[in-house]
Amino acid sequence: MNQIYILTLFEDITDMKGKIRVYARWRPLSDKELRDRERLVLAAPDDFTIEHPWRDEKTKQHQFDQVFDNFATQEQVFEDTKVGESILSGSSFTPCNSFLNPSTC
Q: 68, 55 in Cβ contact below 8 A?
């Protein structure tokens, strides 16, 4: 069995249980950031992990139910996270814009 199939089955089962899911998405660099020659420091080694530089040039990793990189479209995010279905079914949905300090959400 491949990882996507197993993940789909797992999500179907957890949907029945009402599991809270956490998704991550980062935006592309803005035009200003590109002009200033800034660079992305985030990486997604797989569909569930974000890593970024940390102390002593080591990387720090964060795990999520799914990660969307800077190339993901709004349509892809909404389709894959089923946000519309969740809201229409009465489930709670809370977007958070603070990756490095989630306590602000």
A: no
